[in-house]
Structure to design on (73 residues):
């Protein structure tokens, strides 16, 4: 895994198998928008645990709000 990431220009020290789990969770949620099913797939008994995988940063929220043009400055 580290060799693949290194060939892609990603620092080997930043590559961990758990990152793939996060990538899968974010991609699945982006496509399906089904937090309950994602929790089942990941083996979480509580969807609040799953939400950690799908949370977005404040910057992403700000971009989406700006894109909606609901706030006039």
């Amino acid at each position: 895994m580290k060799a693949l990431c290194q060939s892609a220009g990603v620092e080997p020290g930043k590559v961990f198998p758990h990152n793939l789990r996060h990538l899968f969770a974010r991609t699945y949620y982006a496509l399906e928008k089904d937090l309950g099913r994602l929790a089942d797939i990941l083996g979480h008994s509580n969807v609040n645990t799953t939400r950690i995988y799908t949370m977005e940063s404040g910057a992403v929220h700000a971009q989406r709000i700006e894109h909606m043009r609901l706030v006039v400055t």
Notes: Residues 2-68 form one domain. The mean pLDDT is 85. The chain has five helices and no strands.
